[in-house]
Amino acid sequence: MIASKSRSGLSVSGAFVEANVVDGKFITKVYKARRITKRFKEKSGIAQSKELKRRMDTFLQAAIEEARKGLAEGGIPIGSVLVLDGKIIGRGHNQRVQRDSVIHHAEMNCLENAGRLKASVYKRCVLYSTLSPCPMCSGAIVLYKIPHIVVGENVTFKGPEEYVCSQGVKVEVLQDPVCIQLMRDFIKTKPELWNEDIGE
Amino acid sequence: MIASKSRSGLSVSGAFVEANVVDGKFITKVYKARRITKRFKEKSGIAQSKELKRRMDTFLQAAIEEARKGLAEGGIPIGSVLVLDGKIIGRGHNQRVQRDSVIHHAEMNCLENAGRLKASVYKRCVLYSTLSPCPMCSGAIVLYKIPHIVVGENVTFKGPEEYVCSQGVKVEVLQDPVCIQLMRDFIKTKPELWNEDIGE
Questions:
Q1: Which of chain B's residues have a Cβ under 8 Å away from the Cβ of A101?
Q2: What ipTM is given for this predicted complex?
Q3: B9: which of A79, A182, B148, B182 lies 20 to 30 Å off by Cα?
Q4: Annotated catalytic residue within A65, A66, A73, A107
Q5: CA distance readout (Å), B93 to B64, B69, B73, B76
């Protein structure tokens, strides 16, 4: 694990460093990536590498778990979780095959599973998805005014992210290699199913 | 019933007029509105008043029937039908109350009920809705590349019609008084439910 000072704070690789001056002494604490919570990061204000973020993001991991569940069921491996104040309140995955559904994309399934929520709740949520939301899912995000989405990747498919941004939604794209590989492998084996899912 | 010649062809009120020259004679036929099919109108190329269109539109009537079904079930009165080559292949209505659903808006429910269709089928469809599609439903229309939507009204609520148009979808808004009244009455009695449905 290497930690080095940078302009923006501390750049890290596989670890996270908190630096403080206590009783005139420069004290550093090195945390292993898996122990660092999002809350800690936000509180510390210390800069964070994309790679570290990817590793640490337990919510993206939860979305990937959903994608894998879908794959195990013979479905399209796209997963999503809805997070409120640091807690997952909804999980879902694409159900095209499982339910013969044209509307249960991962994000839609996640929102449906989260149940009927007040507008004031949606406004405090972050929606995670392993893949860039398609126009339908993007529309649902805009409808419910979810202010922040974290996207596993948009290499395989890119939804109308500019439109979503223009509606005041913060869009973060992580280009997570696990998410990319999941879709790459799936599309290689079932291209027609993938095309159906994106209306092609 | 009155029919008068206009620049664009024949403007009509409650009737439809076909004009031809047969054996040197100018022949006109007056059809009652209810007997005029969409196909005939398209073939004839004769201009058509909005009012007549509204009366004739059996598909909008079918969407209104769906909205009324929803109302009778204690739900939000918005209905939709999917039309392929002049035949209804899917019907649906808002299911927020009935299914405790946040994704089964009328158009979504209609698309789900129509089942998994090929892209080549969606491309020949017209989607009717009693109310201007919200961002989510608009996104579904864009996703499946449905080329034409007919909207009962957008007085009560206006979805992102400009965005939908920018994606190559033809949007027709009829401002149907029955559709407007249905929503007006409903919102007066259950404003909180309506607000929830549009993420307010």
A1: 112, 116
A2: 0.75
A3: B148
A4: A107
A5: 9, 8, 10, 8
Q: For strand A79-84 and strand A25-32, is the pairing parallel, antiparallel, or unpaired? A: unpaired
Which of these is catalytic: B65, B107, B162, B196?
B107
A73 is catalytic: no
Tokens of A177: 């290699």
Q: B80 and B48 in contact (C-beta within 8 Å)?
A: no
Q: Where are the alpha helices (DSSP H) in chain A?
A: 38-44, 50-56, 58-72, 106-114, 119-122, 135-143, 161-166, 177-189, 191-197
The candidate with the shortest Cα–Cα distance to A77, out of A187, A160, A159, is: A187
Tokens of A12: 């890290």
Q: Which residues contact A7 (CB under 8 A, 6 or more apart)?
A: none
Which residues of chain B are at the A interface, by a Cβ-Cβ cutoff of 8 Å?
A: 96, 100-104, 108, 111-112, 114-119, 122, 134-140, 142-145, 160, 163, 167, 195-196, 198-200
d(CA A94, CA B158): 29
Residue labelled with tokens 């095309």: A195
